[in-house]
Amino acid sequence: MSSAVHTLQKAIAEGKQPVTQLLRETKLIAAKLGLEDMGKWVDGELNGYSSELEPPPYREFTTQAVEICHPARGWEFAGHFHMKMKARQPIAEIEELSGSERLTLALTKNLPVSDGIGGSFGARWPQRAIISGSSFRHIVEAVRNALLEWSIELEKRGIKGENMDFDESEKKSATNQVFNIQQFTGVLGNVNNSHVTLYDYSSIQQLLIDRKVPKQDRRELEDILDELKQATPEKRPSLLARAEKWLGEHKEIMGFGIDAVAKAAGVMMNQP
Fold it and tell me: How far is CA 131 from the centre of its chain?
């Protein structure tokens, strides 16, 4: 005889079935056991969370950066941007998103933007937030882990469901089980109060010219900043080291303007 709970546990442990399918099997078990709260949670995952329903805490994710669409150059990195958001989509959509390394989210209201020397331009250009696919992978794994914990608790109570049939003792035992996914009540980031600094060579180009930085040296800095925009985490340390070296070599000629260049490169200057 096959046990519904053991079959679910095996499927979870093997990791071959999508979480969507695991939730459907869970919904069937919960319905047979008369577990309405569990059924409501499963429905929220399968159908998504409406504006009236607060998603569980594991559905929170954080943006990584923001890009602006330059009229001539297209989308460009504008700065690091960390804002907490809630994923309300059905779990099937989240599973699909989790397969991507890099995701974008259009911003309905632009963020204030300033360049490295305090000027503001490009604030009206289209903007989008950058999100890592791993932010959605952890949601999928959180649901999978929750299902595993739930099935283990059922087994501890002697609830198995042989041939998908639960007897009265199993149903009675199940009604005494509390499966609680704590609702998130914290304050999430507010886009209206966010600010981002534009890290872009064009924001300091005129400053370099005014300080009479040689053209070859200006081009070297431009290359460093361009590479930083698309650099992977593994490459960033070496690029930042190059930027720090450039700053050290040009600190005297730049004077107080060196701070603006450091901001553009995302490097913290050590004051003497």
Answer: 5
User: From CA 36, how far away is CA 85, in angstroms rounded?
Assistant: 28
**Which two tokens mark 192?**
């209206």
Class of residue 88 by CB neighbours under 10 A (exposed 0-12, middle 13-18, buried 19+): middle
Establish if 32 belongs to a structural domain. Answer: yes
Q: pLDDT at position 198, please?
A: 41
Judged on CB neighbours under 10 Å (0-12, 13-18, 19+), 161 is buried
Domain extent, residue 22, equals 4-57+138-175
144/39 same-domain check: yes
> How many angstroms separate the CA atoms of 87 and 199, rounded?
29
Do 47 and 8 share a structural domain? yes
DSSP conformational letter for 103 = E
Domain membership of residue 142 (yes or no) is yes
DSSP, residue by residue, 194-222: --EE---GGGTHHHHHHTT--HHHHHHHH
**How far apart are the C-alpha atoms of 194 and 111, rounded to whole Å?**
7
In a domain, 238, yes or no: yes
Which of the 8 DSSP states describes residue 262?
A: H
Same domain, yes or no: 34 and 143:
yes
**156-184 pLDDT, tens digit each:** 888 898 888 888 888 888 876 655 544 32
Same domain, residue pair 208 and 258 = yes
